[in-house]
Specification:
This protein has 14 helices and twelve strands. The chain has 380 residues and is of the alpha/beta class. It binds pyridoxal-5'-phosphate.
């Protein structure tokens, strides 16, 4: 059996996405900046994709900038918010210790460049309390970044409340929603954030395309220098087929959101329950209703080296991960699990399974059987 349980790393294209992209690649291949008809057709297709995404998220098309993915969108938000702050002499920034590296690394760089960055600790349940953000705010705080859903433990943060605190203090607020968009409802009118980043390949779209939402009126600076694409905010010829694929993937995800959430979280609960029946296991991050993305199970199996387990799982056809995909091969232990207080031994004994709508109960039961079997073997 082959079981793909690594949807948090990337997803395969939803059915219908490739079909939507092919005519754009084959026929409507013009450059949207060209004045001839082929170019203008491509420009029209691009703006349709933007409109479609805007409608599904509750924002205006002008508030969306297409980027080369989640990493770039995060960087652009961080540079924009902190440049706006620095221009007013405010150089204090708040984020959390369990952000994705796409946020953590730029934050560490800002710190080296003279910003004061607070990395808030995260409680054991993996949910940051808004009060902690409020307490960390200083008169010179200009920017706050807290992820919507964590990529390793799947916990959902109280973004609306945090955004409200920031808004009342005139502090720009960004959320990395890469693990949330297409998986749980994301309504920009309700969230009240200034910036939000997303990435198509995490919700059934193609790789190498994402977007940054920037609330009308919030400062946006460009990361790329060059042409005047994306209203001068993102130089480089637009990825038209990518944008079309992303819009289609979001449309499909949104259409099936409620049933998908119900189905996938059912699989997740079944997997968590099965794994917990193996002695010496625990689930990391809150399992409370509505506090976790549908597909995520992060489990610690005491006495078992996760790296070894992953190889054994792979030999049985199961794709899972330990921590973030981008850390694969690296020896660096998960900063997320460390942030929520796991001991170094527990960190190195933790696995992430991330399920999607294409998984089945049979596959989940197979994962449980294989993990049980291999755990017994490794502990012997
Ligand atoms: C995958 C991921 C990113 C990076 O997105 P890319 O499109 O792969 O660059 C950023 N943040 C989170 C939370 C992610 O899961």
């Amino acid at each position: 059996m082959r079981v793909y349980a690594d949807h948090a790393a990337t997803t395969k294209l939803h059915k219908g996405v490739l079909e939507a992209m092919i005519p754009v690649l084959e026929e409507d291949y013009g450059n949207p900046s060209s004045v001839h008809r082929l170019g203008q057709e491509a420009a029209g297709i691009l703006s349709m994709a933007r409109e479609q995404i805007a409608i599904s998220l509750g924002c205006t098309p002008r508030e969306l900038t297409f980027t080369g993915g989640g990493t770039e969108a995060d960087l652009q938000a961080i540079l924009s918010g902190t440049r706006a702050g620095a221009a007013q002499g405010r150089r204090h920034v708040i984020t959390t210790a369990f952000e994705h590296h796409a946020v953590l690394k730029p934050m560490q760089k800002l710190r080296r460049e003279g910003f004061d960055v607070t990395f808030l600790p995260v409680p054991e349940d993996g949910i940051l309390q808004p009060l902690e953000v409020e307490k960390a705010i200083r008169p010179d705080t200009c920017f706050v970044s807290v992820m919507l859903a964590n990529n390793e433990i799947g916990t959902i943060q109280p973004i609306r409340e945090i955004a409200e605190i920031c808004r009342s203090r005139q502090i720009l607020f960004h959320t990395d929603a890469v693990q949330a968009v297409g998986h749980i409802p994301v309504d920009l009118k309700e969230l009240g954030v200034d910036y939000l980043s997303a990435s198509a390949h995490k919700f059934g779209g193609p790789k190498g395309i994402g977007f940054l939402y920037t609330r009308q009126g919030a400062f946006l600076s460009s990361v790329m220098e060059g042409g005047e694409q994306e209203r001068g905010k993102r130089a480089g010829t637009e990825n038209v087929p990518g944008a079309v694929g992303m819009a289609k993937a979001l449309e499909i995800s949104t259409e099936h959101l409620a049933e998908g959430q119900k189905y996938v979280s059912g699989l997740r609960d079944r997997l968590a329950k099965g794994l917990l029946q193996i002695p010496g296991t625990r689930i990391n991050g809150s399992m409370a209703e509505g506090r976790r993305v549908p597909g995520n199970v992060n489990v610690t199996i005491s006495g078992v080296e996760a790296a070894t387990m992953l190889i054994l799982l792979d030999s049985k056809g199961i794709c899972a991960s330990a921590g973030a995909a981008c850390m694969a091969g690296a020896t660096e232990p998960s900063h997320v699990l460390a942030a929520i207080g796991l001991s170094p031994e527990d960190v190195s004994s933790s696995l992430r399974f991330s399920l999607g709508a294409d998984n089945t109960e049979e596959e989940v039961d197979y994962i449980i059987d294989v993990v049980r079997e291999q755990t017994a073997r490794l502990r012997r």
